[in-house]
Protein 1
Amino acid sequence: MFTGIVSAVGRVEESMPQPQGVRLTIHAGSLDLSDIRLGDSVAVNGVCLTVIACAPPRFEVDVSAATLAVTCGLQAGDPVNLEKALRLSDRLGGHLVSGHVDGVGFVQGFEARGESWFLRIRAPGDLPRFIARKGSITVNGVSLTVNEVSEDCFEINIIPHTRAVTTFAGMKPGDAVNLEVDLLARYADRARQWPEA
């Protein structure tokens, strides 16, 4: 589990094809890897990945073909938001994030409004039904609060700090982004569908 509070921005340095996916070498930037062990989880652009090798300041992960098919932003050269897995003693600064991406959205607009930035994203398929005004959503691993929701889009206000310490600094219209809806919304929807006993 994660919180959606990004610890550092890294970069995918290498992508090596594997029989069932790719192996990524990631430069961790300022992320402290001293407590990372083989088998630990790291969220990379919102995708929960297992560390298979670690030689600071780099670590390696395998990404399955199934994960690659439903995510974006994991190509060689891509900047990536990084977060180590949550410990039970940690503060929950964002919201509970599983690192299981629900779909890829597309940036419709990203523009300055005063000191903040206005971000509008089109969500794919049936994801909008899981997105609520003033609810939480994860965009490329960043926990954010939804300001408005329409039929297939949602809007977020990005504060200067968040833009400065994430990959959002380079975001532009047309960019693809990994989306993870709030866990509670998923379970509420599942409970609604379950037949009464």
Note: The domain at 8-84 is CATH 2.40.30.20 (Elongation Factor Tu (Ef-tu); domain 3).
Protein 2
Amino acid sequence: MTELDAFRAEKDDFFGSHPQSPLTREQKQDFKGLSYFPENDSLRLEVQAEEFADKPSFEMQTSTGGVQRYQKFGKFKFNVEGSEVELTIYQSEHGFFLPFVDSLAGKETYPAGRYLEPEPLPGNRFIVDFNLAYNPYCAYNEMWSCPITPAENRLKVPIQAGEKLFHE
């Protein structure tokens, strides 16, 4: 079992049995585990972020009509299937945050996007492992309020890594 397989098994166990799971009691009764893309080494990246000089404040809309405050930390470029794309990394008091939507949204991935917490390294570098991409809690039911992926992080390419669309 790989480290990623162990992580996913632990997450499935949490979702299926833990009192703080985002699933309702009814959803837990038939829960057999989340659906994931196979591990994709080409989408485990070490990236160099171009830090924004002024780190502008940004209010991210949420699924319930509220806002969450972030700072735009920086942006990075990478290649997917021969296309160069760019994403913005946000920062809050909780750390770094990378919401994104890919071209599979609504078909294979959650329509409003998936999330990552990039791992900071020295010199504005980050580990961005799309194999760890996960759905926000609002993907499971409407009890949750989740940040909505900003337009600048909507990609026209597929990110075939991480968690897939949740099916009850």
Note: Residues 9 and 47 are 28 Å apart (CA to CA).
Protein 3
Amino acid sequence: MKPGERKSESSPLDIQLFVSPRNVTDDDLRGRSVVVVDVLRSSSTIAAALLNGAREIIPVQTPAEAGELASRSGRKQCLLCGEREGKKIDGFDLGNSPFEYEPERVVGRTLIFSSTNGAGAILRARAADHVYMGGFNNFTAVVKRVIEDRKPVVILCAGKLDQFAIEDFVCGGRFVNYFETRIRREVILNDGARAAALLHRHFDGSIKSLLQSCNHGQVLTSLDFQADIEYCARLDTHPVLPVFIEGKLRGYHPDGSPLGEPLISPA
């Protein structure tokens, strides 16, 4: 295929779903559009932060990396954000609850973000042609952009410490079901995508209950984050597309116009 040439609408759409970043290779990602899914709670927190005016979000693996980047960039220019075991990291400005990312806290700021699972999954996807952060809150904004990309698709579930997390798997299945039923092309699925689609059909209509009963939902409930669980279960409340570009997540409206301008660069 020549550069700039679009694939035929009749060509099959290949969709692969991975239950965690653990066994994903760069070869699995190259030439593809990737949707990173971390339902509880990074997908919702990132969407909320960008929609509420954050300039950009820089994911990093560890709290130490976050601190070093903030020191180099100027501590007044950025906020340290993230969690471990569901709790805000000591010395950080914000945790991983979407309710913390209100406009008065984040507007115009760069957020350096280190979460237990979501940040690492985003970084693992960097070899892809396009990387988006998706969940229930911004579902439609993401699927429309992925269809416009006209590329094979990877749905990368963040999982829980490199293990299966049912909430991410079911949300990934919603993406698969949308592609299967809404596009006029043959769809080719790996076994992960096929199983996720089936499981989503089972739980569709009871997503809130699923998030409350899953392992991580029970942990968040024990930490008094019940409202976060309800928040993360809502469909299409956030018309924002978080796009991972050059090490930073930037927010875009569904029509492709940017929500903000970058402030600092990652290491």
Note: The domain at 13-252 is CATH 3.90.1560.10 (putative 2-phosphosulfolactate phosphatase).
